[in-house]
Amino acid sequence: MWRELKPIGRHPDSGGYRRFAWSEADIECRAWFRAQAEGRGLAYEVDRNGNQWAWLGDPEAGDAVVTGSHLDSVPDGGAFDGPLGVVSSFAALDELRGRGVEFGKPLAIVNFGDEEGARFGLACVGSRLSAGQLGIEQARRLTDADGISLPQAMERAGYDPTAIGPDPERLARIGAFVELHVEQGRALDLSGDQVGIASAIWPHGRWRFDFRGEANHAGTTRLVDRRDPMLSYAETVLAARREARLAGAVATFGKISVEPNGVNAIPSLVRGWLDSRAADQATLDTVVTGIEKAAREYADAHGVELDIVRESFTPVVEFEHALRDEIARILEGASDCLKVPVLGTGAGHDAGILSGSVPTAMLFVRNPTGVSHSPAEYAAEDDCVAGVIALADVLEGLTRR
Length: 401
Ligand code: GLV
Ligand code: MN
Ligand code: MN
Ligand code: MN
Description:
CATH class of the largest domain: Alpha Beta
Shape: globular
CATH topology of the largest domain: Aminopeptidase
Bound molecules: glyoxylic acid, manganese (II) ion
Order of helices and strands: HHEEEHEHHHHEHEEEHEEEHEEHEHEH
Keywords: Hydrolase, Metal-binding, Zinc
Largest sheet: 9 strands, mixed
Number of helices: 13
Protein name: Allantoate amidohydrolase
Structural class: alpha/beta
Radius of gyration: 22 Å
GO molecular function: hydrolase activity, acting on carbon-nitrogen (but not peptide) bonds, in linear amidines; metal ion binding
CATH architecture of the largest domain: 3-Layer(aba) Sandwich
CATH superfamily of the largest domain: Zn peptidases
Number of domains: 2
Oligomer: single chain
Distance between the termini: 30 Å
């Protein structure tokens, strides 16, 4: 499975993946998913939001056990964030069939569309739409850097965008959703465990900062005459670091666009996107308010105008305790592992979105360097196999209850 997926959307220079929603690479990944489903005799379907499903048993029967993740990537992402969950889902099904398990309930594997939000700026578009956490009109207005809208992109990829929207009937068929994911930190490496269970996802959001100044000649404009938005932006980046450090949170400016973007021109516009996350809402509010206040002061000091727009926000997610405890019991019973570690994460996931509608849990697989959203992301084969076995044990346990 990995062999066929591996080359899709991989950039030859960086070695990273560029699998943006509804792009050629995404279409190829989707074809791969369909082939995996049909090759196993699973019933394949695409829901109204373009999420792909592969069913074993009757999808209408209800109380289904569902697993899966996403196949899209950030710019120059790693091989594991997303795909590990989907590949492990198919592998876990193979494992269970090998064990001769009789499934008392329908089982499904899902690939949620546009989890990373790399193209349209909003993460988890597929699951948000299905869970009713993204308005239809708002979704229709999402556009990429080339001005292509989400419906246009879906249509060009051969998917019908006319019916996007909440899908409560489909979600109501799910009794439990479990997403396996590569860990995006080093907690498991430090504790010496191959697999862990998620406790919570930090609240997180994205804010766009537009600093507007005045374009002018880089050689002839005296420093005192400039209204340079790059300066206020640069100072804001440092303020973000300071505020986050003081609060024990994280804040990142990882994307920027500059106009007119000329090496010999003072910029007229610097647009930077802030991603900030914290363990609790109050801390996140403190950090973002602090960054905004500092940004306004720096903008004033340089004669620059500033607009700040919150582009997305995801509240804290606390995964269901009963399901989490049940999964811990299953894993602790199936192996000689005395205690499966339970850990929180600052990364967003479709599981976090779904948890508002469906009992949801996550499994993490050890990542020895903790690196993610980078070509250097890695998980050892042994640990991936342990993840598959753990997922199979969990799915088996959940279909029996
Ligand atoms: C997605 O992986 C995110 O947490 O930004
Ligand atoms: Mn990711
Ligand atoms: Mn992911
Ligand atoms: Mn994610």
